[in-house]
Amino acid sequence: MQVSKRFPFTAISAVALLVAIPAASQQQPAPAAPAAPAPMVEGRIQTAAEPWLYKGSDITPDPGWRFGTLPNGVRYAVRRNGVPPGQVAVRVRIDAGSLMEQDSERGYAHLLEHLAFRGSEHVPDGESKRLWQRLGVTFGSDSNASTTPTQTVYKLDLPSATPQGLDESMKVLAGMMAKPTISDAAINAERPVVLAEQRERLSPQSRLGDKSRELFFAGQLLAERSPIGTTATLQAANAAAVNAFHKRWYRPERTVIVIAGDVDPAVFEQQIAKHFGDWKGTGPAPATPDFGKPVGDQGLSAVTVEPSLPPVVSLAILRPWSITADTILFNQERMINQIAIRIINRRLESRARSGGSFITAGANLEDISRSSNATLVQILPVGDDWEAAVRDVRATIADAAMTPPTQLEIDREVAEIDAIMKNAVDTARVEAGAIQADEIVQAVDIAETVASSEGSLAIFRGAVEKKFFTPARVQTASQKVFAEGLRRAIVNTRVPDATVQARLTAVLDEDVTKLAAKRSSGPPITFDQLPRLGSPGVVTARTTVLTGPDIEKVTFANGVNLLMFPNESETNKVYVRVRFGGGLRALPADRVTPAWAADLALVPSGIGKFGQEEIDRLTSGRQIGLSFAIDDDAFVFGAVTSPADLADQLRLIAAKMASPGWDTNPVTRARAVMLAGYAGLESSPDGVLSRDLENLLHAKDPRWGVPPRAAVEQLTAKAFRAFWEPLLATGPIEVQVYGDTTADATVAAVAASFGALKPRKPAALTGPTPKFPDHAATPVLRYHEGQPNQAAAVIAWPSAGGSEAFTDNRRLEILAAIFRDRLFDQLRSQAGASYTPNVINDWPVGMPGGGRLFAIGQIPPDQADLFFKMAREIAADLVATPIAEDELRRAAVPLMQQMIRMSSGNTFWLQQTSGGSLDPRRIDSIRTLPQDMGQVTPADIQALAAKYLVPTRDWTMLVLPSEKIVAASKAAPSEEAGAR
Asked: What are 281-292's pLDDT values in tens digits?
């Protein structure tokens, strides 16, 4: 079982953004809420063929879905969903993945997915992307596909779906399934793209994942069936062979179509019948292969040696996967297992927080590719002592098996699950259609049903009423999930050691029953026990700063500013963002600081005398959280809460800022996390870029980039506190509260929390505006220690920053989209040199400068010159020649559609108005957004390109394999790249 009010108007309308977008005449007024599901009746098994998803189950069908089956066997599920308004989410699932391939066909399911998008019966080569761009679809996010071991899923999120756009899209999708262009010419054109994808995925992490899969599923198809395939089989692929695979597996009876969108479901049914109804399979229907069951001796283990990865241990307990009737009782019994796992994970996290032998460890239950039901455990030790970490994790698990949990522990987990499910019920009417469509696809893949949010909650509460969650039953579940099945384990080490495998077996067989740590517990904590704040603040000013939507600014006597936007667009959700101090502009640029440790250590360091353990107990079962980030011009605490929890959420953040705790363990843990990852930063081009690119693009300003290892090693809890304590006391403070609450409740809650703080002095903005690096004739070179056939290239041009030139910032997004599309077509589709080339506009609104537009891509080392040549030629052409109207539309319409969709939710408005209480230009600029994006011309884009894509100001970077890696590859050619 998969557990699963708009704005009356917005400042961004489709008409204002782009008059040329056809009106969505198909859209109807928002429907009434769907009928409540019928009561769950345990044991009343459905025997009828429809709704097909629920046959053999007593779970009440979600009334929002309409199910059907065409005469040719195509099954479908459709529903009305207006989130976001006007959008239609289409999923076409083919019951064929890499597990259906024969040895000579490895990679064909994935290759076929590529070919289907490239061209088909109704679309010439490369035109599907352009067709959908004209309809507002963003390639990669709105249109994409994925191939797994068990299925291939084609995804299309169609914004502002008109009758014509929906009809055309369904026709194209039907052609992609029934008659993709499978010719030797098409395969020869797409093969380099797939090989580039294969090349780019090779990494220490992928090798460890492959080795783990081969060990865990030895004797099963899954062990040898990675969807990417092998170089040999991909090189040998031809039209006849791929056509044979297509005819065998792409058949109506193996197809499920799921559509959720802002259209009458009857229209969806008509479209499915119209475009998919005549499809017929070729030849006899094949039988699905037997994926096998976990086999082999108990306790098999393996060792990998990846010097760039930290020591890590993966443990699996594998049981056969089988199709089980998805009934109420079946799900309630599984919930006991989940409670057991949650309790164990909470104990493991408590042990890690307190300075244990592991940085992190956790267990989960998974159904894996219809091949195994598994209990999986991941352990990341502190340093290299993986044996101590395994021993301590096993001791925690053994303790759960030996001694029942307390009812208090169980009740805590039950309360949290109930709160999550209750929140899902409260927010069900604003759940996106794309999410609901994906849930159906996932359910089909693992032969389960989908319950409504109300139905899921009823099943869970039914288990509570039956008293399923007792200490004895949870203890039994803890024993079962870790004892029943075949054990497999793998450890990665940094250096070869012939004794490791024997040591791994020994530590897994060792008696750890006497090593269990004392279970942490404590009395309940209340908000009244948090450090006291002052008297509620007094409002000194209140004005409306934006209309349509109506956003107010409220100023308190202590200088705190509140921006609030009460609305019902997202039921039972309230977004809170607290900006304070000066962010990066308040940090020194002449030395490395402990700023890097903040997101790892600042939140868990506690409040007053309470550590994170106590804070977790305080907020258990409630919609209260806390995150931290550093923005260009402010430090930011954030959370998503509920109307009922808003006042305490604000109180928690205010107490954190006024009376921070300084537990030393989070700093120790942050240091261990950073040190564990350093070797990986040179193991691939991506790793080197993540380490060096931001620092280099900011002319080596230490506020950007990964800190030197020595700085991390030397950080102490005392130094961390000395740095952050004064920054937490700086101002000004801006509080944003957007969501399902009232203005009066918001003002009162902020007055009692942030309004009650002492006045704060503004932070000193001592950090200078970052510089863009100087132009050079040759790229800056960096080297990696990964695959000899991997490199990465970057070319960047300086732009600007701040809030004075918002029009340029917005139109640079269109210029970047045009540049990206051309680079994609030339470097990927035509040359096959890169799978994921990208062009990005980065404009720091909170900085007066430091912006840039840059192109980036992974390439073979011998294709670096081609990358730079293509990028510079594209830039020069954008300066020299006005673009065609169609190209402008294909770039601009998807961007504007994204904004239209995003503007129906609160996060868009949070981002647009962030910092606006102190910089009114940010809010004022919202009024010009429709003109900035919707009235741009080819001449505007050409002028923008001439302004920013100046050839004498570009900066380039190239990451190549090191001489050692190149020499080693020549001396001893590596195993077939991407063989698994």
From this structure: 999 999 999 999
Helices (H), 753-863: 806-823
Residue 24's pLDDT is: 28
> Considering only CA atoms, which of 331, 327, 571, 453 is closest in space to residue 37?
453
Residue 544, classified by CB atoms within 10 Å of its CB into exposed (0-12), middle (13-18) or buried (19+), is exposed
Amino acid at 93: R
DSSP state, 536?
P
Burial class (CB in 10 A: 0-12, 13-18, 19+), 47: exposed
Q: Amino acid identity of 556?
A: F
Q: How far is CA 454 from CA 421, 424, 425, 461, 646, in A?
A: 8, 8, 6, 10, 24
Q: How confident is the model at residue 733 (pLDDT cuts 50, 70, 90)?
A: very high
Only one residue has tokens 């949990």, namely: 405
Give the pLDDT band (50/70/90) at residue 38: low
Q: Tell whether the model's pLDDT for residue 210 goes beyond 50.
A: yes
Which of 744, 810, 569, 562 shows the shortest CA–CA distance to 9? 569
Task: Return all residues near 483 (Cβ < 8 A) that are at least 6 apart.
Answer: 317, 401
Provide the pLDDT for residue 518.
79
> Which helix (H) or strand (E) is 638 found in, with range?
strand 635-641
Angle ∠(578,579,583) on CA atoms, nearest 5 = 145
The one-letter amino acid at 821: D
The β-bridge partners of 855 are: 795, 839
What b/e readout covers 733-760, taking b as 16+ CB neighbours within 10 angstroms?
Answer: bbbbbbbbbeeebbbebbbbbbbbbeeb
Give me the chain's average pLDDT, please.
94
Element (H, E) at 599: helix 598-601
Q: By C-alpha distance, which of 598, 542, 894, 900 is closest to 724?
A: 598
Give the whole-angstrom CA distance, residue 576 versus residue 574: 6
Closest CA to 454 of 425, 481, 493, 427: 425
Question: In terms of Cα–Cα distance, which of 752, 308, 218, 720 is closest to 530?
Answer: 752
Cβ atoms of 858 and 834 within 8 Å: the answer is yes
**pTM for the whole structure:** 0.94
Burial class (CB in 10 A: 0-12, 13-18, 19+), 543: exposed
